[in-house]
Design goal:
Length: 333
């Protein structure tokens, strides 16, 4: 099916299935100028498939055809994207993630000259937009945590494919404390944890009740760690919090309470392993991080969970727990 054979309404109907003909025609349509407007029309559809392909089209257009927009249209797109994120925040996560991909692609074009402090202002915009639209704080939290996971991943991919962009890196590093604060608020929702405070945002508390969202938050923390933590006043509390959460997970696994799953343990362990195996971190913070690691790894919970893994014959779990000890020993011996 070619674009000449149907109008936009027919195309949208075909995408709602989606038909093989519509999917084959979609890349050709995305090269047309009309796709900018049509993408937002699809996002307003009641059909999930239409909304997904609308978000996908926005991402493609921003990534590939950015220079076809004049400066006024480029500036106006920012507000439209933030509204689209809010609108999709209580819908399927697949659609929300695609809209966030479009937002991040926009940010990568505009940081820092046209959009400084991207993360802070984007999160503020999502929260304000959700409040005005009558969306719940949980829905806003879905959008924010998805963005916190996606943004550093896309930045790392961008920096790997081109020369260093000092302004982008600086903006990301300035966002690090906020990102870690919010993600910490989510992972500390683990049952049995006492690490949340009265200052923890409500959406962090709500998402922290879900093992799936806690796992995503741990994975996002690992992504943010790739930019380096600039001070021990930020790194030490992060590591101590992480080890405290791992202790709670270890006790839960030993008791068989079922409050954590293997994916969450692996994600948390990967973040800690990244910190304790980082030679640059060891060179900068040998005394503080080394002392903290000795204190926490020397507690009974680590030997207890390894003994438990051996008693039930779970070699994979033992490898996850033990890898942190090995990395710490190799780095700080």
């Amino acid at each position: 099916m070619s674009l000449e054979e149907f109008d936009l309404q027919s195309f949208a109907q075909a995408l709602s299935v989606p038909t093989q003909e519509a999917l084959a025609a979609l890349p050709h349509f995305q090269r047309q100028s009309e796709a900018w407007h049509f993408a937002f029309e699809l996002l307003r559809s009641n059909n999930i498939n239409c909304r997904f392909y609308g978000a996908h089209t926005l991402h493609v257009k921003i990534s590939r055809d950015w220079d076809t927009l004049d400066s006024e249209r480029q500036a106006g797109l920012r507000g439209e994207l933030l509204r689209a994120v809010v609108e999709q925040s209580d819908g399927p996560l697949s659609v929300l993630n695609k809209v966030n991909q479009a937002l991040v692609a926009y940010a990568l074009h505009t940081i820092p000259t046209a959009w400084s402090r991207f993360l802070g202002t984007a999160i503020e915009g999502i929260q304000q937009g959700a409040l005005q639209a009558g969306k719940s704080s949980t829905s806003a939290g879905h959008a924010i945590v998805d963005l916190l996971e996606l943004f550093p991943e896309e930045v790392n991919r961008t920096l790997a494919g081109q020369a260093q962009r000092g302004g982008l890196i600086q903006d990301v590093k300035e966002s690090l404390p906020l990102a870690l604060e919010l993600l910490t608020g989510v992972v500390c929702g683990l049952p049995g944890s006492t690490a949340t405070t009265s200052n923890t945002p409500e959406f962090c508390r709500q998402l922290g009740q879900s093992a799936g969202w806690r796992t995503r938050a741990w994975k996002a923390i690992l992504q943010w760690l790739q930019f380096g933590v600039p001070s021990d006043t930020l790194l030490v509390p992060l590591l101590e919090m992480s080890l405290r959460q791992l202790e709670t997970m270890a006790m839960a696994q030993i008791s068989g309470s079922g409050v954590v799953d293997d994916d969450e343990v692996r994600a948390a362990a990967a973040a800690v392993d990244d910190i304790v195996s980082n030679t640059r971190t060891a060179a900068q913070y040998t005394r503080t991080v080394g002392s903290l690691g000795l204190t926490w790894f020397g507690k009974g919970w680590m030997s207890d969970v390894l003994k438990h893994c051996a008693s039930v014959g779970d070699g994979q779990a033992a490898l996850v727990w033990g890898s942190m000890l090995v990395s710490f020993g190799e780095t700080y011996s």
